[in-house]
Every structure is written in C-alpha cells, then in structure tokens.
Specification:
The chain is an alpha+beta fold and about 550 residues long. The protein is built from 18 helices and 19 strands. About 30% of the residues lie in helices and about 20% in strands.
C-alpha cells in the first residue's frame, strides 16, 4: 500500500490546517469546492489541485476500523493447534499472528524490530542478550505482561523433553534469567547473532505464565479467539485493549479449502476475500477480474521431495542421485510456475538469502547420469512410491514430471496422490518419500538448523552428518566475511551432494486478495505477507 502521509505539499501545512483538510475530504467535499475554498484563501489553482490529491491520498491510506474479512488457506486438519510451539503449517502461522505477539517481529528486509521487547541489547560476543519488556501490555484476560510470562514461554522450547518444533533454533541458550519484572536475559553457550531474528519467527509467540490449555488462546495479539475448531475454522474478534497500532477489523475468519480450483472459485465469487497459493495458470484470470489482485512476494521458499535416509529404499543414495538428475528444473520454473519461481539446486538456500552460495555448479537434467546411478542402485523394477499432495503449487507436478522421465530409464516411480487435509500429521516425517513445501526463513542458518541439523525435529530426511552440524554451529560466531562465505558454501554443498532432499525450484509466494483489503504486508517468509498481515489489514468498501 502506498503511504503518502509525508506528501511534501501536506508538510507545508500547519497541523491544524492539515487536520481540517483531512476532515473536509473525509466528509466528501468535491474537488471543485475544495479548490474554490483554497483559491479564495490565495492559493494557486495548481497548488490547490495538488493539495487536494495529496489530502485524498492520505485519507485513502489511513486505516479504517470495522468490517470483516474471510481468508482461505489450503490446508487444515485435526492437528490444527493454538500452541505456538507445535505450529506446523501456514494456517497455524496466520492464526498465531492474530492471537499472539512476540519479543521481536520480522521486517520485509528480513531484519527485526522490537515488538513486546521494546529494546534488545547484546554483549560484544553475542553470548548474552537482554530483552527489555514493553510495559502496559495486556493479555486478552486483562493480566499485564511481565518477565515471568516470557521466561515461562521460552523454557517450553528448552531441554531434551521439549515438545517445540523449533527448539533447535534456541538450543544454544543455556538459561533465561529474570532481571526484574520487565527485563530478561538469554545466556548462551555459544555466540549467536541471529537470536533476535529467530525469536521473531512463528513458534516463539509469548504465552501467559502457566498456560497448558490450548483449546483457546490467551495472548497479547490484536484479536482474541471467538471460535476455534481444528480442521474447520477459526474466528478472531478485535481485542479492544491491544497495545499497538493495528487490529482494525471487527473480525477475521480463516479456514482451509484444500482443492485449488474450489479455492479459486470461492475467491472469484466473493465468498472469501483472500486465498492462499494461487495456481500460476490462474494468475491472468485473477488479474483480469474486477476488484481482484495478485499478492506476490519474491522468496527462496521451495518445494521438494524428501527421501528418508534411515530406510533401505528411500535411503539408497544412488536412487536419490538418479532422481535428482531426472528433474526438469527449467520446465518446472518456466512452464508450471509461469515465471513465479527460479531454478533450484538441491539445497535450501536460494538467491534471496544473504548467505546464498553462487559457486555450486547447477545440477542439470542429465538422463545418462541418471541411468548410471539407477543401474548402480540395484533397484531394478521395484516400485518407488512417492506420496504427493498439492501442499504448494507444483508439488504434485514435480512428481509427475519425474515419473515420466524415470520411465525412460526403467525407473518405476509410483506417485500416490492424497489430499492436503491432515497431510502434515499423517504423511510428512512418516512416509519414506513425500513432497514437502518449505517456507523461507530470515537467515540461512535458521533454515538449515530447522530442517537439516541432525537432531532437528523437522530433519525430514533423517540424514546424520556430525561435520555439517559442527560447521553450522561454529559459523554463527564467525565475523570474518571470507571465512563465513567459505563455511556457508560448504554447508550448502554438503546438502547438494549428500542429503536426501530433492529441490527443483525456489518459488515465490503467490496469493490473491480483494482490492477492498488494505494494509498488506510483504515479509517473504510465508503466505499472506509472511503471516504478518493480521495486524495491519483493514477493509475499505468505499
């Protein structure tokens, strides 16, 4: 959304005149009457016209309170949760932003800024971080946020018995220490300059001390729970005592529609105001529809086929290499994604990351090399099952492309299509081979720690590499740019050559939204603007 509140013509006005002219436009004064008023006061016609446009733009960009929006995700199921530590899918992340706040929040440039912590400080070695907690913040039940709530929340992500899906991101924290009611310290066992960024990601939402019941959510977010039915929908209503700017709507409703055609039809018919994962072939249709817009964010999110290395067939390295050499990456990026993706290279750190290594040679489609590895694998005509659901655009098609090419060398790929409903609980991390869709993370280290470190809860290929783990931890404290570049190159190269993840493309986030929905966000880490939009969205039915 364009913000013209700093229009140079408006800046020439006194605060009183600025407010007066905004009120005129708000009440519906015509351009002609406005210019007549200004010229009578001695202004030129040109200046009066410019000022009217500026004031109109300011008013149009000023959030309005009230109204309701309905957003459709693509996945939901019985594992839907209000426990941030257990969040898994985009629907969880969006819901979490409605109801909770974090110590820090991420920006569109993948930095961070304070949120519930109004100040973040580090010692010189990045082994001790101090978070000064914002005063006067209320939970939805009226309790005031204090250090005890922060300590309780963070301790849920610590220890061998933690249930947190993101515990690996804070594994270097030895202790969370209370300084006073509004200040806490994180004491680290090793340097980590990325800690405040990690705490702005989806799982570290602040809970009230002692919370164990997640049938509802008592958070500090702009909306409070009106209804939550796992696998059905969630409805949030405005929290009147929200501490910050935002929470402009009366209600937000969010649910999943698994079928992409049904989701698109619901959006075009006006049954929902926004939809996730617009299929590339439908982009032109949305662009041509009155009052409908494409909401696209460039990213290094990716789709992949995860092969479990801890099982005989799916862990056969030569079989995995054969499939990597059969991937028609260019055709997927250009034909399937219509330019809303770039070519992947079997590692997760695409060009959107600061620490992306451009020095790893692009793996081409090479049927001869694929045949060499297939013969070496000894698989023969054994069926190789891949469970596939449309967890993101192109997720199923990458498997069908692979299946067609595999037939040419005698490799029997069995694509087993299932629905997205319940996929993350029933298939992912369980099936020997399955498709996955990964959101981008704000740093390369966070991405690889979450998905590729040997002891990570989401190490979906179950690949064990102590050397990789050692470098991943050590690089967090490296300040020499050349050394840092070399270490990140090694990490990406090891995944490229040794891991069981087949990554053919890096994809943009492409959603669709009604033109009436304003205040969109553009954080490239998830759908719907990085799941940051619940705070800032508002509705303009004018």
């Amino acid at each position: 959304m364009s913000d013209k509140r700093n229009d140079p013509v408006l800046e020439t006005l006194s605060p009183a005149d600025r407010a007066r002219f905004l009120t005129m436009v708000k009440k519906g004064i015509t351009r002609r009457d406005f210019m007549h008023y200004m010229m009578a006061a001695g202004a030129t016609a040109a200046a009066s016209g410019t000022l009217f446009t500026g004031v109109s733009d300011v008013w149009a960009a000023t959030p309005k309170r009230g109204g309701r929006i309905v957003f459709a995700g693509d996945q939901h199921g019985p594992n839907d949760t209000l426990d941030p530590a257990l969040f898994t899918s985009a629907v969880d992340y969006f819901r979490g932003r409605m109801y909770y706040g974090s110590l820090t929040r991420l920006t569109k440039n993948l930095g961070y800024e304070p949120e519930l912590a109004e100040e973040v400080l580090s010692n010189d070695s990045a082994t001790e971080w101090t978070f000064k907690i914002r005063k006067g913040v209320e939970f939805h039940d009226g309790k005031t946020l204090t250090a005890d709530d922060v300590i309780y929340t963070m301790n849920r992500h610590m220890g061998e018995n933690s249930i947190s899906n993101a515990s690996s991101l804070v594994a270097m924290v030895k202790e969370w220490k209370k300084v006073n009611d509004y200040e806490v310290k994180a004491i680290l066992s090793s340097p980590n300059a990325d800690l405040p960024i990690a705490l702005g990601t989806f799982h570290f939402k602040i809970l009230q001390e002692g919370t164990t019941d997640f049938s509802t959510a008592v958070g500090t977010g702009p909306y409070k729970v009106k209804e939550f039915k796992p696998g059905v929908r969630t409805i949030g209503e405005r929290f009147g005592n929200y501490w910050g700017e935002g929470g402009y709507l009366d209600e937000i409703e969010h649910f999943g529609i698994g079928d992409p055609v049904a989701r698109l039809n619901a959006f075009l018919a006006g049954d929902v105001d926004g939809m996730v994962n617009l299929q590339p072939k439908a982009i032109a249709q949305v662009e041509a529809a009155p009052g409908k817009e494409v909401w696209s964010l460039e990213s290094s999110a990716y789709i992949n086929i995860a092969c479990r290395k801890d099982m005989d067939l799916s862990g056969n390295h030569d079989l995995i290499m054969a499939m990597k050499y059969l991937m028609d990456r260019k055709r997927l990026a250009k034909g399937v994604f219509k330019g809303q993706a770039s070519i992947g290279n079997d590692h997760p750190i695409g060009p959107a990351y600061f620490d992306h290594s451009p020095d790893i040679a692009q793996r081409p489609m090479d049927p001869d090399k694929a045949k060499f590895h297939f013969d070496k694998s000894g698989v023969g005509n054994t069926s190789v099952p891949i469970v596939a659901a449309e967890v993101a655009p192109g997720a199923v098609e990458q498997c069908l492309f692979l299946q067609r090419e595999a037939q040419k060398i005698g490799l029997n790929i069995d694509v087993q299509k299932v629905t997205t409903d319940g996929y993350w609980g029933a298939v992912w991390l369980k099936a020997p081979m399955c498709v996955v869709s990964w959101n981008m993370r704000p740093t390369a280290n966070l991405m690889m720690t979450l998905a590729f470190k040997s002891d990570a809860a989401w190490n979906e290929t179950y690949h064990q590499d102590p050397e990789f783990d050692k470098i991943l931890v050590e690089v967090r404290g490296v300040t020499d740019p050349a050394k840092r570049k070399e270490m990140y190159h090694t990490l990406q190269e090891k995944i490229h050559n040794e891991n069981g993840s087949i990554i053919p493309v890096y994809r943009n986030y492409v959603d669709a939204v009604s033109s009436k929905v304003k205040g969109l966000t553009h954080v490239p880490l998830n759908n719907f603007g990085g799941a940051e939009s619940p705070v800032t969205m508002w509705r303009d039915d004018a």
